[in-house]
Structures are given as C-alpha cells and as structure tokens.
Amino acid sequence: MWDERFSSSDFVFGTEPAAFLADAASHLDPGSRVLCVADGEGRNSVFLAGQGHDVTAFDASPVGVDKARGLAAERGQDVSFHVSGIEDWDWSQPYDALVAIFIQFMGPDMRATIFDGFRQAVRPGGLLLLHGYAPRQVNYGTGGPKAPENMYTEDLLRAHFGDWQIVTLRDYDAELSEGKGHSGRSGLVDLVARRPT
Ligand SMILES: C[S@@+](CC[C@H](N)C(=O)[O-])C[C@H]1O[C@@H](n2cnc3c(N)ncnc32)[C@H](O)[C@@H]1O
C-alpha cells in the first residue's frame, strides 16, 4: 500500500520536516545520534542531517526509502537509510534521540511492543520525539488512518512514558500543510520526553 502511495514523483508529505519536528529539534544536542523510525520519503531524517545530526532512518517501503535517498542526495546530506519493518528493527543500539512521526499504522498491541523498543533504543538521558494524531482526527479526514484506536491521547502516552521526564505533552488542533497527505485542520498530539539517567 505504501509503495503504491509513494510511487508518484511528488512527495506525499512534502519535502520539508513535520512542523512539530522543525520546532522540537531545538531540544537536540549538536551532533546527536538520531534514529528516525518509519521515516517514509525522508523529509524528517534529511532535515535533521542538515542540522548536523548523525542520522539513521528506516521504513518498510523500499519505494519510500529510494525517494528518501534521492532527497538526501539532492540536499547533499548523509543519512544511513535502511529498509526494515518496525517490528524487525533491533532496538538494542542506543541513540541520543528517537524520532517517530505519524507512525499510526499500529494497533494497540503492536504499539505497546514497539513503544517498549523505543524505551530501549533511547539511551539514558536521551530524548523521544513523538508526534501523531488524536482520536478526533478520524472525523477530520485530513490525514491518517480511520482507526481511532491507533491514535494518541495524553493519558496513553503518560501510561507508556510517564516515568520519563516530560518536556512537552500537548493535544491541540492545527492547520497542517505537509504535502497532499496531511493537509487541513488536524487533531494532533506531541510528546517530547527524556529518559531518566
Ligand atoms: C504516514 S507515513 C509517515 C512517514 C514519515 N514518518 C513522515 O512523517 O513523513 C507512515 C509511514 O510508515 C511506514 N510503515 C508502515 N508500516 C510500517 C512498518 N510495519 N514498519 C515500518 N514502517 C512502516 C510507511 O511506509 C510510511 O512511510
């Protein structure tokens, strides 16, 4: 499904980073080692590489990863790209930060397992930058799957990461203009959390 969506020459979510990341990247230390999960066509990983970070990214769609490689080359940026399902990723490698943006293809059971992986992959003192839709997004029809159970609430994220230092946790509406994939009024949830040392 994603290979097909990514097969046109335009970028489904644009080539600029998610608005959340453009702002939240200010929390990263210079030269951070960052993992971008389910990175799609590379808009977020390439942005972070351009900010001087040491970026690894993966996505399950080979077509998406090919486009991401092209975007990185066009911008003269170096990202270590991989084709991988999130369920197959080895979380034992520690990163200074993990970036997870619009990865709501997962239902609650898989999400719980993957969030455990995130908890492992962020080094002590490192950061998680997570951004996605709130359940009401299903009625907005401006992006994301029609599966309210895949969406985030503040309570859900607190249940998984409440023992970390919460830097930002907010649920809000905003106008997104991120390619034709995410366009219009959107119900959003942001989390920036620091793993305890
Ligand atoms: C809504 S897009 C977001 C892409 C990117 N994070 C962004 O913000 O531009 C969701 C992405 O999840 C990827 N994806 C879907 N299922 C996946 C899986 N099981 N493992 C890894 N990536 C997956 C898709 O290929 C797609 O790139």
Characterization of the model:
- There is one protein chain.
- This protein is of the alpha/beta class.
- It has one domain: Vaccinia Virus protein VP39 (Rossmann fold).
- It is 29% helix and 31% strand.
- It has seven helices and seven strands; from the N terminus they run ααβαβαββαβααββ.
- The chain has a seven-stranded mixed β-sheet, sandwiched between helices.
- The longest helix has 14 residues.
- The N and C termini lie far apart (40 Å).
- The model has no long low-confidence stretch (mean pLDDT 97).
Report the top-level CATH class. Answer: Alpha Beta
* Arrangement of strands in the largest sheet: 3-2-1-4-5-7-6
Into which percentage range does the β-strand content fall? 25-35%
- Name the average pLDDT: 97
Number of helices: 7
Order of SSEs, N→C?
A: HHEHEHEEHEHHEE
